[in-house]
UniProtKB/TrEMBL annotation, chains A, B:
PANTHER family, per database record: FLAVIN REDUCTASE LIKE DOMAIN-CONTAINING PROTEIN, FLAVOPROTEIN OXYGENASE
Keywords, in A-Z order: Flavoprotein, FMN, Oxidoreductase
Bilayer-spanning residue ranges: none
InterPro entries: Flavin_Rdtase-like_dom, Split_barrel_FMN-bd
Pfam families: Flavin_Reduct
Listed name of the protein: Flavin reductase family protein
Length: 209, 209
């Protein structure tokens, strides 16, 4: 049986119910820990499920931030220093990753026991033990008029990836990397591959690749 | 062993390699079939992995479209009619969903055998058999300066969801709905739940909820 919610019933629902429902609608979401460092040198780490591909040439990634009306350390550090890192989360530390969302005064690395890692002269901290670590430079920001959400576009400067997850064709095997995915606000999953399909053309059968 | 790509090695890579690599970076992605209908009445269906949560109050969703420099039926229909649907994909029809990306002259519903479904007086077609069907109205568009990507913001007007996937608290059980997730351009997965965690606060242990 299909259950129907119209706009009125969504808006009349209890606010936590609405938040949980609407956050679940898009489907499985990427999960990345974003690492930043303030101008004063304090590191910050926070989980994001709103990171998405924008383009390959040049390589660009997007991150959505809730409205910049209250203190948002990650966004402020990115605007101040133009540097941030994206780090995939595995089953081995997804609980600590979730815990980084708590309101700490100091560094979430210290509070949760997640290790910092630095590469070359990149300013922002990477997550030690993450199988996929990406260093990004602030490229552009936009504000969504409808609700003040801030879209940050990042230029991908560096990728460090566990080579067991890199296929010959450049695609990444996220099952092999052990990357975790999130649904709604608080539910974590691994991926279980069902198939990889050939490029679709009219009148041609799809094959497994 | 970690493999390193810097910006120069990314840009020097063969273009298909770069496309596959960069498309894989964000992690697991949502998979939705977007249903639209042209002013002339021709239906269109296409798979999107760039659909994401924007806000719950009011309920908003975002969709990213590649630059509007060539014919893009889905985007054009949305701009012309202001209506579109999002439909989750299950293992039962993920191959047809992939096939809708082929360049058909006519309707992808007809070409792939996916059924159209209409509810109330909503203009755009839903996907018959999808366990989660969302009707959206065009709210706003923005163009990302860095590469011309178009962000469409949609207002969520209707949700039809299989009630077996709706929990008491409003969150959706996507494992129960059988929703498929995608990585890179062409690889499909089911989710395998590892845990749902309580709201994180400093100094308090996380518990399974």
């Amino acid at each position: 049986m299909m259950k129907h919610f119209d706009k009125a019933s969504i808006l009349e629902a209890e606010s936590f119910y609405r938040r949980d429902l609407i956050n679940s609608l898009s489907g499985y979401k990427s999960l990345n820990l974003i690492g930043t460092k303030s101008k004063e040198g304090l590191t910050n780490l926070a989980p994001f499920s709103q990171v998405f591909h924008i383009g390959a040439t040049p390589p660009l990634v997007g991150v959505l931030f809730r409205p910049h009306s209250v203190e948002r350390h990650t966004l402020e550090n990115i605007l101040d220093t133009a540097a941030f890192t994206l780090n995939h989360v595995t089953e081995g530390f997804y609980r600590q990753a979730h815990q980084t969302a708590a309101r700490y005064e100091g560094s979430e690395f210290e509070a949760t026991g997640i290790g910092e890692e630095y590469y070359l002269d990149f300013f922002a901290p990477f997550v030690k033990g993450s199988p996929l670590q990406i260093g990004c430079k602030l490229e552009e920001t936009q504000v969504i008029k409808a609700n003040g959400t801030v879209l940050v576009v990042g230029a991908i400067e560096h990728i460090w990836v566990d080579e067991k997850g890199v296929r010959m064709d450049g695609s990444l095997d996220l099952n092999a990397l052990g990357t975790v995915t999130v649904t709604g606000l608080d539910e974590y999953h691994l991926g279980q591959k069902i198939g990889r399909l050939s490029y679709p053309k009219p009148g041609r059968d799809l094959v497994e690749i």
